[in-house]
Amino acid sequence: MSAEATNPEARPEARPELRRRGRTRIDLRRLGRAALLGPTPRDRLPDAIGHVAEAHRAHHPDADLSVLRRAYLLAETSHRGQMRKSGEPYITHPLAVTLILAELGAETTTLTASLLHDTVEDTEVTLDQVRAEFGDEVAFIVDGVTKVEKIDYGAAAEPETFRKMLVATGNDVRVMSIKLADRLHNMRTLGVMRPEKQARIAKVTRDVLIPLAERLGVQALKTELEDLVFAILHPEEYEHTRALIAAHAGEGDPLPGIADSVRAVLRDAGIAAEVQVRPRHFVSVHRVALKRGELRGSDFGRILVLVGENADCYGVLGELHTCFTPVVSEFKDFIAAPKFNLYQSLHTAVATPEGYVAEVIVRTRQMHRVAEAGVVALGNPYATAAAATGTAPATAPATAEAADGDEERVDPTRPGWLARLLDWQRSAPDPDTFWSGLRAELAQDREITVFRADGGTLGLPAGASCIDAAYAQYGEAAHGCIGARVNGRLTSLGARLSDGDTVQLLLAQDSSSGPAADWLDHARTQAARIAISSWLERHPDGPKPTTTPARAPLSVVGARGGGANAVADLPDAPVRLAGCCTPVPPDAVAGFVVRGGAVTVHRVECAAVAQMRSLGRTSVAVHWRATADCRVTLLAESFGRPHLLADLTEAIARQGVEVVSATVEPPVEQRVRHTYTLQLPDAAGLPALMRAMRDVPGVYDVSRA
């Protein structure tokens, strides 16, 4: 039974001061007794869910409440006789969970499933009964929230329950919305549990459910869960923070006066706006105290400005920065660049003439609703616009099979983090690996977006490397990744990516290629770490070298002197082409007399030309002979792999080009630099030669010296 609950007044941490300010307090004990008073006339809702109906109608005035009546009657009948550990009738729990969701604006289907969320788990009601009476969609959500049997999974029951819930959330985010509201009510009423059990539940809430609430954008649930966990796991810090807030309440609060000044500024500017003072919750005050040390009066809250349109947000910002002194370092624009959890707002801070610094949040009313309720505010994300109001019957297909045959139902609210979790959980059959990986993945609380070379995007956690991008894009094929370009420049695979980077990943053609053990030092995502670890376990000796047919030995000819087909306008002077830039016809060239009377020929853009002129070297006019042969030095940059040198020289030989000399530098971070001096029968063939060299697997760039 999921009723890990007690009397709300049994513990000071669960007192009303921790609840969201402004929430109407409902006497659930009274409602529970009312639920047992017998049948209700068919023409009205039972009194026990009148508050739910009132909250629901506030967000969805045209909602059909008859389905809620039927769901409540089934839940009350099936739970009748069951009691919570606090002595309350069990029906008070699904009622409280449903009320939380109704206040956030959840649509009718979510509330129906919420009323029934414990029936299949704790009563004789079956999933088939729920499906027959309320449709596939409600049944899918109820099944997603239902725990797996501990008798079947033993110690793995909790991680496997979360895995099941996570997979269901991938098809319907409303599953996790109900779970979050369920945990919030249980955390509110946790007081009679043994301290060690309270701590265990609080740690799971901190490590898993609070990060999920953050990612789904449900700030109203997240902030209260944070405070409840804070009170249990850090009682001394909690008491200190509570004392700070109590002391501040007895002093003069400067924020209402600042809010009045903001109202006056916006009124004079003709901007219609609602200005509120939003007190910080306990954990927020604690964090500010850690950051700033001694708290000022304006640190205990923030000013919220609500407007009608996006453009008004920037109008408000302009007026604030004109009439007050802005704190530039505090400005953040989450409207132009929304957070990955749907959050949009402008954040700034302004200094008043009295010396106070007030943080200000500017958003539209729709942004505010999404900021508080996250995905819950989206209604039914799988219905048409007409059906998303809450009036649609709860019989829409919920599973992928019902909606699109064998196709997975597309969730328009799914950000990259959820897709990543769904991907790597398939590679983590071990419950312990899944549980530890889930906590580690959720601990990464920021998201970045990088662009692929083909124009697509990848959602990655902040701090992700090119290795993470490779596994996110190619899956296990990323074992053969040999390098990457970030924003057009070559970089190591361990390089960290930033938001907005463009990454091009280079894969080896050799199927036997595999990751190095040090890749684990740079991988941040669990999908990458699990894939790399699995490959290393299967290949303890590393990648096996490929066997290739024997190749004929290649002779490397020593460099020959002379200026080839370059002619200097200096009789009898020996001419030689400069090795620094190796000019070829039809390059524009310049000649300079050096020691011994020889003429050295450079391309005119070569840096050595300016140096020669600064040294006062005598310049000599140079032209090309009619003959087409030439000598050139090329630099080939590549990733190291077996037989690379042989493949490169073979590609050169196929072009009918003679290798005069070749140098290979030692590898650095798997990168190898080759220098070739080549004799071409025709200078016109140089572009084709360079293309042929670039086509060799592993070569990422070929340029002239």
- Indicate the proportion of strand residues: 15-25%
Average predicted local confidence, pLDDT: 79
Radius of gyration, whole Å: 35 Å
Q: Helix- and strand-based class? A: alpha+beta
Give me the number of helical elements: 26
What is the global morphology?
elongated
User: What is the terminal separation in angstroms?
Assistant: 74 Å
Number of strands: 21
Low-confidence blocks of residues? 1-44, 384-412, 546-562
- How would you name the oligomeric state of the polypeptide chains in this document? single chain
Helix content class? 40-55%
Largest sheet: 6 strands, mixed
Report on this model:
Helices cover 41% and strands 16% of the residues. The chain is α+β, with helices and mostly antiparallel strands. The radius of gyration is 35 Å and the shape is elongated. A hairpin with a 5-residue loop joins strand 5 and strand 6. The N and C termini lie far apart (74 Å). The protein is built from 26 helices and 21 strands. Helix 2 packs parallel to helix 4 (92-104) and helix 7 (127-134) packs antiparallel against helix 8 (136-145). The strands form 5 sheets. Strands 1, 2, 3, 4, 5 and 6 form a 6-stranded mixed β-sheet that branches. A 5-stranded mixed β-sheet has the order 8-7-11-9-10.
Topology:
Layout: H1 28-35, H2 50-59, H3 66-79, H4 92-104, H5 108-115, H6 119-122, H7 127-134, H8 136-145, H9 150-153, H10 157-171, H11 174-188, H12 195-215, H13 219-233, H14 235-249, H15 255-268, E1 274-279, H16 282-292, E2 301-307, H17 310-323, E3 325-326, E4 332-333, E5 346-351, E6 357-364, H18 365-373, H19 400-404, H20 416-426, H21 431-442, E7 447-452, E8 457-461, H22 466-474, E9 481-486, E10 489-491, E11 502-507, H23 526-538, E12 566-568, E13 575-577, E14 589-593, E15 599-603, H24 607-614, E16 619-620, E17 622-624, E18 630-639, H25 644-654, E19 658-664, E20 671-680, H26 686-694, E21 699-704
Parallel strand pairs: 2-6, 7-11, 13-15
Antiparallel strand pairs: 1-2, 3-5, 4-5, 5-6, 7-8, 9-10, 9-11, 12-17, 14-15, 14-16, 18-20, 18-21, 19-20
